[in-house]
């Protein structure tokens, strides 16, 4: 509410920095002002005030400083600007927002500084004042006090015995007219006139306090300058300061401070003359800040005393009046304009000064020219805009009015020279109504004529009551009322939208309002008249609201104003001919109180509405609420519209409201009258319906849940005779009534209860309990799954079905035990427990099964009887109830494709026949470490073994895989090996099982109607996505090889190529990948009976004879993909040692020893002492059993890298193979010396060598 609270000289905006530093004041009956500490200020002349977290002090010589709470200087104000003296004798300071005002009686002016940094911003007052100040008798003379209240600067013009009012940056407003009420009969009144105003302050209500040195009084005036009373009991007032809870006055004679409340009553007094702490010798200024802090300047002791005072009663923020409007100069632009017109949206059009070829128009926005066009052979003298953006210009040259588009093109011409109807002698003003009517003022013919929008003449305004002499300006309000300013008669005539004269105001007789009316602007609620060097504001009825402006010699003065326009909202534009400028002024409006304020009660809320403000400068509305009418209002909301709903209120409580409009300048206007209302309680609507279910002992009621807002509970009633008995209150939309009698009729009622303790209408439901013919403990089979024996372990975790137990008695059942058994396939029954079942209550329980291995011996699908039993104890007697159910058990080869992960059951890498097969292959390829070569050996080995692809004649995969619930038949890998044939899914299972046995990860690939697989190579994929022309597959950041297993019997290369082709064909068109390892988490591999099946005859020689060259091809492809990165380097840099070395290591690892040796030799050709190449060369020679050559290589490596312990280990092994145990032991001891950990790491070698002599 308070835009600027207690902003005044010697008592400025409260400082949070000071408030945070001090604890609350003490009050024990004696101490009303608790002394806190002193702030030393050398050469203190006067404490000027406080604000923005600073204390402002004047030192001897006129220096003004801003002090921080600790007394340190934050900044010093400039005393000069160039050669111009700014400060000589500073006497008072005030602040508002980010502006600091300092009154200097020596230079007789007010100085403006930035509050945050002390930067000089301007000045006003004396003959060289700022905008609109001085030069015509308004100059300040020996000013001594200043205060700022809601955008208006009040200056105690001591020498002129008056209070001058200015805008926030020095725009002169007017002199405050002081008056006094007529005294009561028989009583005298104190003089309201000022003798010597020495200080000034305003409270939150706008009351003015003036310290008058002339008669040693502090005089109090209301916001309009009417004298109210004087503060008494002060011998010689020297300074005053205003706080939120009262007025402090310094008494120079007693050197004490007196606190008065806002009713003018003395509350308490503190301080005294003396040398002690908290005492003063010469009071020099007074200030206050937030938290009841008071600062007392003492020039005699050069310090400031800081007190913490007891809080008093503050001014109620509401109700409040509208306050005084102010103005603020926003800037200007260098432009010689003759006439102005605003579009109401911030843009301004101006007629430029004359030129030889004709006039020209300019468009201005944000103080910049944004458009300009010339008018040939046109002399524009008046300007207006219509609602569609067209520009209307009065042409003095050809005595006509032109309609122009936004680019200046002529659209219509109206009138001509002459004295007749539709003719002009000297057109002076144009206005275009929203209805389209065109009004043209003609000072030559002394008339105002009306035209249709197409230029057709209609009539003339006026009559005997209105005889225009010199109509110079016109304006229209939003309702198309026309205002005509007649400079000749010094009056304004107001016409209705239909042309009838409504009233006139101004100089209707001698001594009228205007001196030299020049131009006029009409807004939604005001009429603004440029009269000589000032602007006068009237309401639409002609009441004078305010005057501002004066002739000045300063910057942006109104020495020779010629035009005025409204920019919409609160902005005005004034054209100054002498200075060739267009000035922009913002009117800081204080809106009037909203009208037609009304309150309408509703549920837990009060709806507020008021008439929207007509003024464009009203931006929003503030809503206040209180529990009493006369005060205690708190702002609860801000609304952009003229309505507000106050919700979540307490029903039955009385609430009072006031509303105030907020201007676009951020100022709050007058508050409305108070309105009140009492919110209604919420009465819930009745339930739509209530459903009921019964058993012999219970009735279960249920219904749709009520809306949660204001909901409290549901109340349930039971009819007994003619009475309704409350039997329950619940928060959920269901209720069970227990303990009923079987085969008996009942009537129940349900109502909704609100938080306001109101009930809805009760809804009745009639019912009858059932005959008691059901088992006390009922077992209902909710579901039973088919059991696939191959994944029997799954049912121990997931269960085979679900049952529901229901208590059909009127007693609770505790510790119910449930058992489930499938005869012949379970060694014992599984059990479950239900801790408690209340009467009529049901609970579901899963049936879990632990099957024995005999389930895998089933040779055909069977329907098996399951027994379910439930028992509990009733009065010490065991009560048991049972239920039989049939479960379909499929033999171990069956599955359905609704859970495709079930396939993983048939991938059995640990099954003995599969392990035997894998071992047979690995034993033949001991030296092969490459996954691709091992996989090729296994695939080709299966071909040698005689495994073939045969499509399942009864359930081929391509048919059953697409039917989720069709039971398919699959073979386990051991069976496929025994039969030497299988379908695609059988072959994928056997090949994947074999690879998994070797430690090679696999994935199952499914494409429409077919299954294949892929395995991991262990090779990371390159960043460029290289796949060797789609031969490989990138999956999970690795390279994988797809294999078409149905091509078993053909070479591995062919199966690989076909697998890759299929993968990429269906990659984005139906291909899915099954992770066997993830599937095993739910479907573990089947545990099959022991088997002694072994394969024979699968030697490497036989395999490579049947598939000649296949192994070499895989080796070359594998080596190429793995060495690709290093080979690319060698293409550009053949001599790169690391690339040659790494290539050799990779080739050696995958078994291409001859090629590896070439690369190691190439490294040694580049660096003969490369230890890594020598060591790896020795490793290859060891594999080829060339032990002496290996010794030579290791010895050379050891010489090249004598600190490498592992080279010594390799050398020891080579010596040992040659039988040179002594040399082997010597090499091992060297390794141990280099790294003692090798003895543990190579403990077997150590055992053999270190025990030798």
Task: Summarize the structure in words.
With 1253 residues, this protein is α+β, with helices and mostly antiparallel strands. It folds into eight domains: 33-126 and 138-178 and 193-309, Neuraminidase, CATH 2.120.10; 344-587, Neuraminidase (6 Propeller), CATH 2.120.10; 598-677, Immunoglobulins (Immunoglobulin-like); 690-769, Immunoglobulins (Immunoglobulin-like), CATH 2.60.40; 777-890, Immunoglobulin-like (Sandwich); 899-1098, C8orf32 fold (Roll), CATH 3.10.620; 1108-1167, Serine Threonine Protein Phosphatase 5, Tetratricopeptide repeat; 1170-1252, Tetratricopeptide repeat domain (Serine Threonine Protein Phosphatase 5, Tetratricopeptide repeat). The protein is 16% helix and 39% strand. A hairpin with a 5-residue loop joins strand 35 (400-404) and strand 36 (410-414). It starts with 15 loop residues before the first helix and ends with a helix.
Q: In CATH terms, what is the architecture of the largest domain?
A: 6 Propeller
CATH topology (level 3) name of the largest domain: Neuraminidase
Distance between the termini: 106 Å
Domain module tally: 8
CATH class category of the largest domain: Mainly Beta
Determine the strand fraction and express it as a percent band.
35-45%
CATH superfamily of the largest domain: TolB, C-terminal domain
Please provide the count of β strands.
85
Relative helix content = 10-25%
